[in-house]
Give the backbone structure.
Amino acid sequence: MDDEHPVRLSVDYPDRSLNRLTTALRIFTVIPIGIVLASIGGFTGGYGGGGNARTIAVGGTGLLFLPPLLMIVFREKYPRWWFDWNIELLRFTNRVGTYVALMSDRYPSTDEEQWVRLDVQYPDAKRELNRWLPLVKWLLAIPHYIVLFFLYLATIVVVIVAWFAILFTGRYPRGIFDFVEGVIRWHNRVVGYAFILVTDRYPPFSLAQREVPPPAQESPLEPQA
């Protein structure tokens, strides 16, 4: 049986000296790309009063949750372009998040893959997704919210330790890196399950990513004498 989860994430370990200056100032250097990311969430406001009130919308829509939910429930469909939007935005968010976590000193791109690899299988909604499960997935994921809350707190602490380590040695401690990567992977699996609804596979309570070995290749037949 294949135990590979449909949401897979890996972060390239920077096996080199990281830039101490940009690491020290990371809280400031992330501001421009952070503003770009925040603007994708959009802003809605109004002006005027009474019958003359008008609504304005600026920016994007963030991750799509309600539209896919309605389409899965009523039509058993997950439009591909909605899926692509969610995955590309999630990839961008992860690039910014790992940059904040000091896991790379390269500046996050809005569209290039860079050091974060997030792969998600596009679901066949009619055959692979239960049409009613999206209504309760957010509820079923409550145990993960609780565990992730404490993992987030631990991540803040270890990233601070990594910050000092980079300033003094130029290197990101591998054990800390693997832990932070695991927390981010766990977070993405929960998002994929409960919020962007791309899988019905319940997220494992694990930081690890199971590596599926390639299929064994058959040796060529020996020629008959």
Summary: The CA atoms of residues 186 and 207 lie 6 Å apart. The chain is about 50% helix and 10% strand. Residues 55-59, 212-225 have pLDDT under 50 and may be disordered.
